[in-house]
Design a protein that fits this description.
The protein is of the alpha+beta class and about 130 residues long. It has 4 helices and 8 strands; from the N terminus they run E-H-E-E-H-E-E-H-E-E-H-E.
């Protein structure tokens, strides 16, 4: 399952990811990360039955952890298959089939919203996650 880990400016310089991994033994597969002096944001995969253990370890260190369980919504009727989404998606959710039709693999979606901003026909929607 995909999770987003937000790290505030107060703790961005602390090794909370490393400490949480060492404490729990739960591995994270980081697919996207952004850090600067004001905050940090990491999108990672974690095994579903280990999510709560990792979430607890991260939250106890001050991070905010969100399950990314609502991938991109694709309105096939509105889509004109212009392929604008293909070039901007960092995880290759979108591709072209042999017949040049648009293929969508929602399991790769990290919910960054880049494709939504790029779509000229508003055929992509990113729902709020809880």
């Amino acid at each position: 399952m995909k999770v987003k880990i937000n790290i505030s400016s107060e703790i961005v310089t602390k090794p909370i990811l490393a400490e949480s991994i060492l404490e729990t033994g739960v591995l994270l597969n980081v697919s996207q990360a952004h850090f600067d002096r004001s905050h940090g944001e990491v999108v990672a995969d974690v095994v579903e039955d280990q999510f709560e253990e990792m979430r607890s370890a991260l939250v106890s260190r001050g991070a905010v952890v969100t399950r990314l369980d609502t991938p991109i919504e694709w309105d096939e009727d509105e889509c004109v298959e212009c392929s604008a989404c293909i070039s901007v998606c960092p995880t290759k959710v979108f591709s072209l089939g042999e017949d040049y039709s648009l293929l969508v693999d929602k399991s790769k979606c990290i919910q960054c919203g880049t494709c939504v901003e790029m779509c000229p026909h508003n055929a992509l929607i990113l729902s709020n996650n809880k």
